């Protein structure tokens, strides 16, 4: 933590690092949320209630939002969450929702809270709203949601578990140990002529094409992918993965339709897919963090080609090879097959935007090389120092281990400026910023950020930073 520097919280103002450090050590809901919370009366009027009585022993969903951010007093996501909330309460689940307002006025707070049936932090508790926002990681923007366990620890920084569980059958939605990738992918797939085994495809590179195949919303046509597939069928196979929700699962999404699924699959040139309604589809979406429901939009899972390096381990060549395919002419699509990811992605380019999910939402380690305040020659030297390191890490992308690192170059563009301001990093020289996983035994699994400004940006200096980022300056965002 950078001692003495105030931490800016969206539009809510500053928090001192000392106050935040004290607040992060609190454990009881009364200490965290205060003695009283807003609640709704029978006629929708705003009342107050005792925090311990309202929250004791309950799992909590925190909603960080504002009227200016939502743009309206209700939306489809919120309507569906209200439906889930009422179902959970009717079933007697130990569950509660708290609205943490980022509104600019009490009138805006009252308008947005007016459509919510649950609890809220009092609008006049500004300092507490700031601290809760930081503790539960809503500093990257709103709307943001978090699931909190009965001991005040973080279960998840998204609410996909709720959106996929309308009846609450999986309550309290604690994370499950990941399955081995071979089990997750399975061995049997639907083909246009029956069933096929994965073992029949061992001599081919496999791409998983994610799209909404079974809902009314028509998916994009991957024209260059289809052209490349026609040319490369002797060494390339595509398995279509329907990223629509599982039928009967419950969501704001339209109900998947078998007839739509079959018609769309028939219209694609690809031979194989995961069958309609098979839970493997969403398991794969979540495995690769392609769709963080309730916090990000649009999800990458709407249109992505994930190229596997190894279908047994789940090692990945490219999270979305379409970003490279789009650079090819349709007449020679496939010339760069199998479209491995570049070792260093342009943070503001197509690959960088595709991989942005990792910076924002997953536990993947990431390193950004900021070169926006140096000349072109210095920029190229820094890139040359980073490239051999990035190439070493490319085969290790499997979304499970600490060896997975994504590398970005950030140049002079609006996104770089925004990230600089968010992270409070120096304005001069080449800056290395790294997101790392928490140490063993940490209270939660939320990553930390560190930065270094080396005097000489050499390969060894970068290796030293990657080896021991915690020895550099910690960023409190």
UniProtKB/TrEMBL annotation:
<dbReference type="InterPro" id="IPR012336">
    <property type="entry name" value="Thioredoxin-like_fold"/>
</dbReference>
<dbReference type="GO" id="GO:0005634">
    <property type="term" value="C:nucleus"/>
</dbReference>
<dbReference type="GO" id="GO:0030178">
    <property type="term" value="P:negative regulation of Wnt signaling pathway"/>
</dbReference>
<dbReference type="GO" id="GO:0004791">
    <property type="term" value="F:thioredoxin-disulfide reductase (NADPH) activity"/>
</dbReference>
<protein>
    <recommendedName>
        <fullName>Thioredoxin-like fold domain-containing protein</fullName>
    </recommendedName>
</protein>
<feature type="domain" description="Thioredoxin-like fold">
    <location>
        <begin position="57"/>
        <end position="149"/>
    </location>
</feature>
<dbReference type="Pfam" id="PF13905">
    <property type="entry name" value="Thioredoxin_8"/>
</dbReference>
<dbReference type="GO" id="GO:0031397">
    <property type="term" value="P:negative regulation of protein ubiquitination"/>
</dbReference>
């Amino acid at each position: 933590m950078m001692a003495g520097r105030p931490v800016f919280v969206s539009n809510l103002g500053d928090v001192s690092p000392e106050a935040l450090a004290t607040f992060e050590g609190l454990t009881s809901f009364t200490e965290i949320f205060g003695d009283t919370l807003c609640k709704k009366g029978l006629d929708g009027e705003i009342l107050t209630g005792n925090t311990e009585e309202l929250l004791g022993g309950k799992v909590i969903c925190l909603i960080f939002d504002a009227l200016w951010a939502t743009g309206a007093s209700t939306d489809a996501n919120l309507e569906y969450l209200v439906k889930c909330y009422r179902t959970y309460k009717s079933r007697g689940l130990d569950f509660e929702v708290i609205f943490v307002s980022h509104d600019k006025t009490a009138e805006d707070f009252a308008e947005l809270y007016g459509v919510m049936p649950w609890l809220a932090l009092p609008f006049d508790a500004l300092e507490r709203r700031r601290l809760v926002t930081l503790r539960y990681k809503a500093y990257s923007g709103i709307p943001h949601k978090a699931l909190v366990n009965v001991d005040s620890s973080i279960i998840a920084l998204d609410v996909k578990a709720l959106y996929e569980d309308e009846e609450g059958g999986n309550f309290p939605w604690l994370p499950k140990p990941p399955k081995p990738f071979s089990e997750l992918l399975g061995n049997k797939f639907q083909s246009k002529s029956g069933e096929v085994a994965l073992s029949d495809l061992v001599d081919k590179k496999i791409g998983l094409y994610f799209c909404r195949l079974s809902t009314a919303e028509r998916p994009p046509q991957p024209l260059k992918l289809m052209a490349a597939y026609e040319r490369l069928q002797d060494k390339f196979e595509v398995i279509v993965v329907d990223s629509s929700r599982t039928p009967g699962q419950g969501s704001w999404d339209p109900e998947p339709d078998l007839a739509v699924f079959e018609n769309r699959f028939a219209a694609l040139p690809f031979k194989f897919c995961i069958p309609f309604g098979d839970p493997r589809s969403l398991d794969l979406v979540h495995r690769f963090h392609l769709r963080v429901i309730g916090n990000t939009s649009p999800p990458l899972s709407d249109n992505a080609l994930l190229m596997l390096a190894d279908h047994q381990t789940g090692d990945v060549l490219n999270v979305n090879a379409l970003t490279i395919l789009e650079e090819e002419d349709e007449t020679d699509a496939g010339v760069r097959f199998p479209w491995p990811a570049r070792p260093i992605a342009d943070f503001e380019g197509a690959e960088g935007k595709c991989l942005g999910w990792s910076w924002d939402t997953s536990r993947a380690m990431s390193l950004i090389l900021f070169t926006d305040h140096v000349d072109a020659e210095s920029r190229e030297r820094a890139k040359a120092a980073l490239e051999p390191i990035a190439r070493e890490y490319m085969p290790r992308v499997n979304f499970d281990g600490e060896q997975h690192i994504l590398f970005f170059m950030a140049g002079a563009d609006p996104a770089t400026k925004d990230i600089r301001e968010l992270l409070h990093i120096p304005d001069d020289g080449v800056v290395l910023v790294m997101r790392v996983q928490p140490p063993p035994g940490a209270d939660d699994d939320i990553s930390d950020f560190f930065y270094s400004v080396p005097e000489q940006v050499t390969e060894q200096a970068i290796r030293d930073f990657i080896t021991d980022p915690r020895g550099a300056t910690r960023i409190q965002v």
